[in-house]
Amino acid sequence: MNENLERGPIVIVGSGPGGLCAAIGAAQGGADVILLEKQAHTGGMLHIANGELSGAGTKRQRERGIDDDPVRHYDDVVRISHGRINHELAWMSVSRQGETVDWLDENHFDFDPTCPALAHGHEIYSIPRTYWGQDHAISILRILKKQLSLLVEAGRVRIWLHSDVRELLTDENGRVRGVRVSRDGKLEEEVAASVVILATGGYDANPELRNQFLPENCASTLIGCLNHATGDGLLMARKLGAAVSSDGIFLPVMGMIPDWSRPGHAVDYNDAFIELAPAYRLPREIWVNQNGKRFVREDTPNPELRERALIQQPDVTCHVIFDQKAIDTSTVPLIRNPSGTWTQERFVAACKTSPWITRAATLAELAEELVIDPAALIETVSEYNRAVDTGVDKDFGRLILPDRIETGPFYAMTSVATSVLSRDGVLVDTDLAVVDQEGRSIPGLYAVGEVLGNNVFAGDNFVGGMSITPAMTLGRLLGSKLAVALNPVQ
Ligand SMILES: Cc1cc2nc3c(=O)[nH]c(=O)nc-3n(C[C@H](O)[C@H](O)[C@H](O)COP(=O)(O)OP(=O)(O)OC[C@H]3O[C@@H](n4cnc5c(N)ncnc54)[C@H](O)[C@@H]3O)c2cc1C
Question: The whole model's pTM is what?
């Protein structure tokens, strides 16, 4: 920390993994912390996230004979992100992420017994170093809440719920001195701070702001995150002249289902999504776009390939087309959720009743329901059936060609590209101090977590665990460094 801090509370805005860990780090370091959260509860996106973490050189890896270290983790992050990360910040996090996993371990984290594992939802690491709890991200939240409650009891942390921060307050020198907050939806009040940490998460639930960063053709992308992600921290910092990245990078999650009761949103990921990874389910279907055409090999083991192909399709929409035989012969349900409550029996029943699944006696009728040209869909299915017969998919090189699609009734599940993570965010230096357009730090203002934009840690791809783990790791680091700067050992 290169600034002289005056005494006073550290005000942290937002209580997701970034804010909670910053509060824990700061309070354990002896600082007085006020944690402001606009919702009725702490936890942020941990309430729905899959909760995958990554870290190398952990106790749990050693116990299982897995040889790993942060350098190899970092090399994998660079490979998967195509080198488009912020190298200094990514290394700062990756080199400490094993410690974060060990810290959870020391605090009795209920690891899923299969961890550390290779997780196939995104491009896989070269070594098993992904971890999650038995209750996914809720397992993380449980530990963080417990740690925080000890600090609340010790009088080091005050948590203000229903406290919506609206503005950053500065003094005559432009130094951030506090925040203006609306508590319980009532009159706004000022809260003075020695420093303010923005841990407000991303902007993906704010379509207007999100579409400023997304490529033009991706405007129909669904919202797959919780409503709190409205980009408040980014907007408040930008008002003070903070620099914001604009990398033009976007990669959606594929497989999420439109929620017909909430236009523009996806069905909650915890309830259901379409499992597309061949490591978990071999495809018995084809994927077609709104023109009735296939656009990628459905058995690709490369998630990035299918995600990039999807954003080139009209309305970033994909219909998963299958027939009765695919249902009858599959043992693995097409729909899944993290808690594993979708069995094949439940899926078979859902095919008859679910509003997410379109059914029709013939392919032509199915196409009409989907507002696709029937002749185009019939031709695509015929082509695919020829590939099954010959064993050669000349268009896309698909290798898994189990059965012709010909036994009615026919079915479609529609999936639309979904954003779950904000790619851009406020720029910070290696102290995590927010910087202006000239790269100068804005005194008194720091940021951690998804408000930085996930590009910092994942470049133009998804990298396993590289959002929650950096938020936690750098949150704790930032909190403890600020505590030292505020209370230097005499
Ligand atoms: C479906 C889904 C699955 C995911 N799975 C994974 C995964 O497996 N692994 C992974 O690494 N990442 C995953 N992520 C991403 C990850 O959950 C987030 O990137 C991470 O939670 C960000 O942490 P954060 O603390 O920065 O923000 P958040 O968790 O979003 O928390 C921000 C908090 O700030 C509060 N806040 C915002 N504005 C204000 C304001 N003005 N005043 C007061 N409070 C405010 C919010 O209410 C919220 O509580 C997933 C995301 C989704 C949506």
Answer: 0.96
